[in-house]
Amino acid sequence: MDRAIVVCGAIVAAIGGAVFLWKVWGLGLPITPSEDSVVWLVQLEIAARGSERGSGSIRIALPRDDARQRIFGEHFSSDGLQLETRKNELGERTGLWSGRIDEVDHVGYRFHVQLFPTDRTRRTPPLRSGADAEAVIDRARYTRSERRFPITSEPVAALLEELPLESGDGDGEWARTLYAFVRYEIASAASAPDDALLTLTQRSGSESGRARLLVTLLRAVGIPARVVRGLELDEQRPAHRVWVEAWLDEAWRPMSTGEGRFGSVPDRFVRFSTADESIVRSTGTAALDWTYSVARRRLAREEVESLMMPTSPLFRSASLYRLPVQVQGMLRLLLLFCAATLVVSVFRVVVGVPSFGTFMPALLALAMRETGLAYGVLLVVLVVAVGLVGRLLLERLRLLFVPRVGILVCLVVLSAAALGLVGESFQTAGLFGGIVLPIVIVTMMIERVAIVLAEDGARTAVVRALCSALIALAVFPVLRSESLGHLLFAFPELLLVIIGVQIWLGGYTGFRLLELVRFQALRRVGASG
Amino acid sequence: MIWEELTDAGVLGLNRRNRELIQRFNPRARLPLADDKIRTKRLCTEEDVATPKLLGVIESHSQMSRIPDLVGEASGFALKPAHGAQGNGILIVTHRAGERFVSSRGRRLDLGDLRFRVSEILAGRFSLAGQEDEAFFEELLQVHPGLAEICSGGVPDVRIVVYRGHPVMGMLRLPTERSQGRANLHKGAVGAGLDLRTGELSTAVCEDRFVERHPDTGAPVVGVKVPDFESLLVQAVRAADGADLGYVGVDLVLDAERGPVVLELNARPGLSIQLANESGLRPRLRAVDEALGAMPDASAGDRIEFCRALDGEAWREGA
Fold it and tell me: Rounded to whole angstroms, how far apart are CA atoms A368 and A433?
């Protein structure tokens, strides 16, 4: 290797490495993401279309701090509506935007939340949501009959007669019995009723319906209970969730019939409000739509601290974390892809593995990232097979090249759509999502495979395909690695190290490992000379 | 270890070829000359190098109707993409059966099949980077009687690697049934090393194994002498000089009537030629570098003589 190459690569890599080390040792940024510093950025965007009346309001329940969650860095935005935040007697907040809603108005709410995982080893979970303020609760308020909780109705009374509620047992056992009834005897269906009584009589209810039924039953036996609404933090599909809290042993205990949890809810649930109403509501609007986007971030200690202080600027350092949530996700992937190119370089330059297209295996791995490996491979094989068959059929029509590839794209999209439907029925969502991105790549791959098949025969094509798969397999864990993703996102200067190594690889003039096999026969030449 | 043994043998690897030869001696601006067979042909004509006769070029779909005129009465011809790689997309018609054309693979084609192949070529299906391409028809070459005995299906060609004006290594490539009439080693053709002094075939490989005889005909390959060898080397060096490429593979065919003609230039010649010659390229390249240092302005004839004098054991002593 040239000295210039060695030096050049070393300088670039050293610069990147030095910045990295300075950030780690000098600034104390954590290298590995630790659970304690998991912070989520949640963004709620609402679009409302005004009605004839002209004026209207949009109302959202706002989360607040408790033992499991800390809310900070809140940000409200609106096109032109007046914002007012209200607090009820429990300390729960509501954001209320009101004013003239013309054509379409947009409202945004963004916050950071730091979650503290519940300790499952302890029998009483540390959830004391609002317990500080409610050391003594208003029992009457949480045991009374309401329109949504018809505790005195006939079917409820009849059910309580049937259930094995022994008088000697405490509230805890009773609550568990009632919970078990709703969990196992009431079916869950998204389209089923929201109403407690209907849920009971039809033995089937929505998440809300089951939660309301459980609260009704708890209140009917004198246990204070309430419905809780919140958000499940899921980067792909953030969703509203409903669960129940019951006052047992001087604390509010959560339970979720949907998740099958008694005494806790999943760590990723953020609690919003105990008012049994939708988190997003509106009056005077003709249509209302909202979307959540959620991104997991891992923050440096001082970043968290600065974020915690509302008076200081939100982000001080030049960190990629300043970017909008959606961009962050994409960028994280792109950064990982840079690492993937390094793997591809090694395979091509050092090992000498042939493949279809230089970076095609890496792009395939990118596609499989969404679907998981088994489905990903299946998917690609199926789609390529469909494409090849389609291409063979098209061969007879002697179509021109570009329209033919266009037809192939259509075929690939159709087969991907069919796979999406299959995926839907098998509950493997994401099967579809994986193939959408690289559709054109897959199509071009079909063309390449077809040419190699025709020109070099099936053996070469199969070998080439297997080699491509091998590279894709090697790239796959790189693209999936969460810690590598964090590392590159928190320390983008590491790309300089990657560039440095690529410079070295680019200047490598030694044998490729497979050439050692290929030129084996020439060994004796050296020996004899 | 294999690594050291191959290094001692002076074997050239792909990484080194790419970085130290192609990037260094084949400037990008000169590559189109080698990549476009029509331009190569024009260049050769200017340099007084013989090439197969061009029957005609089809540059766009609108010229497709000219195909029958171009082909004319010729019983056999070759249809090629101007920018094809590794012989992909080449169609050889050996003779006619009534209205139909018979390909070297024995397929019977009508005019529609020809037009389809031309349109595929124009759309860039076979071109190096998938760019739009041109198709051309060329006269069919006939196997030289001196080589007829060791041929089966397909015309053999000679690859001469010319490094900085010096013909450093050569091989004869014989199509086999396995290679389906193509002369590419990785497709199963036989590669036979050439003794530059005599033009004799010294060694031969097929599918990465050394052979003495042609796998299809059984005729002995080693020891056969390539006719017209001197003029072949002259043509190769002249073509390489004209193209101004420092590391180039010149592909020639020995035609029965016209003698050596240049088929194409390859600016990224493969490395299997080392296997065919049972010899590494690097000592030869080094010898040329040294000779150029001593005598930078040697004539083509001198350069050829230099290489021929060095072939055989002399190269190896340099290793």
Answer: 10
